[in-house]
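Subject: Sanity check before I submit

Could someone independently write out the structure tokens for this chain? I want to compare against mine line by line before I put it in a report. The sequence has 258 residues.
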Amino acid sequence: MRALAAGGTQHTVRFMSDPNAASRPVQAVILAGGQGSRLRPYTDDRPKPMVEIPGTGTPIIGHQLVWLAEEGVTDVVVSCGHLADVLQKWLESADLPVNVKTVVETEPLGRGGGLKYAAAHLPHPDRAWYATNGDIWTRFSLRDMADFHTERDAVATIALARPRIPWGAVQTDGFGHVTDFIESPPTTYEINAGLYVFSPEFAGLLPERGDHERTTFPHLARERRLAGFPIPQGSYWRAIDTAKDLTEAAKELAALGR
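---
Independent answer below. Compare away.
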């Protein structure tokens, strides 16, 4: 609370504190070591996160770092692999909105092992952290996802997306009559969107090598300590896996005026 004097009259200004702010992560891991073979020739001379979305002039990881900063993140550990020196050189020369540290796996550890290795370099081991795959281009409130994670007392929370299927769908009635055609509708299934909130103890549950989605996640799910946060309807999300994804992302961002 602060008292201000104006025209001889004392006014009291109250600042409302956010009760959830202290539990939200301020650190994140970006997994950026994939070879991106389906994005060739774009990835012949650069790692997948360094591929630029046409029309933006910024690589995927650049968009991710800006978004993380907007969501309150101050420190990011980038786990490098394929053509790590190219990514490291760009990070060293770019004007970044967060503090960035890079780590390089000397041998393949798998996604779970890679997460564990990167998490060991986070500046606040006693605090929660975000993680994202280096090929995800999205915008939604990570703060809301962090609050969702805390409210459910989860050890790990997965962001869930409903991607659009690449084909047109045909809608029929109960008698088999075609009633409508829907171009690229969202799937009815939720998928792992490649974004996470992890409590501090999660790193200790990760394998030294291997895939956490086949080991740690099923274990937590059985114990009801794994949560799923649906990305809000209308929020942008796309995984950049192929050249077609780049083209579609450019069209979508142009339509959104970004």
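---
OP: Matches mine. For the report I'm noting this point. The first strand starts at residue 2 and ends at 6.
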